Sequence to fold (347 residues):
Amino acid sequence: MIVKDEELVLERALHCAQKFADELIVVDTGSRDKTKQIAERAGAKVFDFEWCDDFSRARNFAFSKATKPYMMWLDADDYITNENIEKIKQLKLQTVCADVYFMKYATAFDARNKPTFCFMRERIVKNSPAFYFQDPIHEAITPSGKIVHTDIVIEHRKIKATAPQRNLKIFEKLIAQNYDFSPRMQFYYANELYYNDKLEKAIEAYDDFLLRREGFVENKIQACLNRGKCYYTLGQTTRALESLFASFAYGAPHSEVLCELSLYLIENARYCEALYWLKLAVQTPDVNSGGFVLPDCYDFIPYYNAAICYHKLGDNRSAVRYASKACKIKPTSSDARRNFNFFKSLL
Fold:
């Protein structure tokens, strides 16, 4: 782990890790609170690292201190349920081992604690010089050798918000230094512009990324989706639709794109067209391709919005049927329940 001022969450993360890890390594990058004392109390080996706006250098320093055959990274605000801890324990008992193990990273949740945003990350790697973090920000390890995708879930449970422009400032510092962005860094730079409402610049950055021949296909699809959102927010609906459709050039339609596409159509009273894409969205499998996944786009959102479309088209019987499906997916959703009751009252 690399940490800084994480006294609110570090004990929780280390308590999880203690149940399966043979060695705990905490690299502190300049804490002024009780972070280091908490780590030492948990039995971790604690090291200092002078922060230099380079996450890869800090993580690789942490890796350099590992003495066991495999290394697993966590963030201080990560949490692992008992069920997933048991799965990790079982993984350690396997006699046929891989070089890299991927796990699902869930970073946002609904009222029932079901993930609403997740993606696969390389989580455990062999302790080998072949595996190291690259890029100063939004760092990642290039997987190689035998790769296994597990069903283990790591939950990212923030208590305090990250400074909103922290990452963007690091990117801007790198630009001032004429740093040569990898395709992955270009994609995440565009994302940071988008998250900070710098929409025109975000569109330019997404264009630059999409023009590169290199780059992860899932990131290309996500870039088309995010660029479409930028265009739509700027009132350029036609360009927004063009950007969404452009994602089809990189792979099969993703439900996240189809739901966004249907949203624009609904707002423009094109209900029959919206229904076409919504029905396709629920038929699209969620494959572990490594891209960003919004699970609600594969069932709840298509059912919820299809009910609205049918109501607008005067078919309240179908509206009730689809609203009922939405309620079954999310029984605690007051909006879904209200729609169901309203559509039913019209029969």
Observations:
- The chain has a mean pLDDT of 96.
